């Protein structure tokens, strides 16, 4: 008789959605973890015979699934949550966000904002995220301390800014940061050309060359609004997707963020190059940028991941809220209630997100050999009763606040709703006492005020 295998952790729950195989909900199963990886997903009875665990965690009434992959955000901008609302994109950028960033952004701002964002993401089920913001080396330190998995796209502009003197300086710093973190198990550095309208042909061509030679990912805001496309036609006599394709920037590690308006020939280009679309539904709706026709993208064979965008334009980082909205908008845009079903939405927020980041062999599904990036959701609340279909409850009811546990590479980052690697009280005190008053002073005064005093 074979002796039981010694493992680190055995997690048992009422339900498991592994993502692979597709459309699967398992009952009364357990996940065995050793050295940060999944060694088995089996029935609880089988697990008791096969394994001796240093730690056993039993979660009745809860569901295990892969941690969510937020494929696009600007984490430090969490400090600007609610700072400037109800404005279209270009006014929002030019009249509110960019002036505020010019006055505020430094290493301390990025550290505090990133820590706030990371705490929110862990608490709502995200275990991997892709970021684009200034001072990515500071964000890297916060990520490493908190224990998440992250791709950090260093921002690149033609113009000088708080993190660089111009495109060449931004590119140089990106390459240096890549060298600094090339052996880190949870962090990867990518190029982050902000958008085709903020980077010229020379800059985009240089990035394409470096990214190809070094096999680095590229994240770019693309086809976010109809105005962006009209401006490209005026200035470059072509649409943005065609322009970056001609410059060599499309490839299997290119993440095209937003993509609210895409023609058939552009979908064909994305599919041909193996590039990915990152859909940010809340931000696109809040800024009135447009509605991405997800079903058409998927039918064209293009991988679609989900992102929250920054909290300044969302105003939250709860990816469960994004996958719900993506499913609903996908139905409306296709005029088909079955267009984006609950299992499809869950896959977009997990394995499809991991695929967009090039991490599908590491994370995104609960399979033996993959990293133990796992979350547990408590489905016992009033809002989840009665429970007929756990997958449906995850997508169509508000479960971001029901995440009870989170593990990344087997390390527990959230236990019974409490952060284990971030001091929540200290974080909230820092934001409330230091950052909120300072940032509030930069907001324009309201047009009118009212008082209830006699």
UniProtKB/TrEMBL annotation:
Residues 64-411 form the Amidohydrolase-related domain. It comes from the Bacteria. The keyword Thylakoid does not apply. GO terms for molecular function: deaminase activity; hydrolase activity, acting on carbon-nitrogen (but not peptide) bonds, in cyclic amidines; metal ion binding. Pfam families: Amidohydro_1. Keywords: Hydrolase, Metal-binding, Zinc. The keyword Zinc applies. Belongs to the metallo-dependent hydrolases superfamily. ATZ/TRZ family. NCBIfam families: PRK09045.1. This is TRZ/ATZ family hydrolase. It comes from Gammaproteobacteria bacterium LSUCC0057. The lineage of its organism: Bacteria, Pseudomonadati, Pseudomonadota, Gammaproteobacteria, Cellvibrionales.
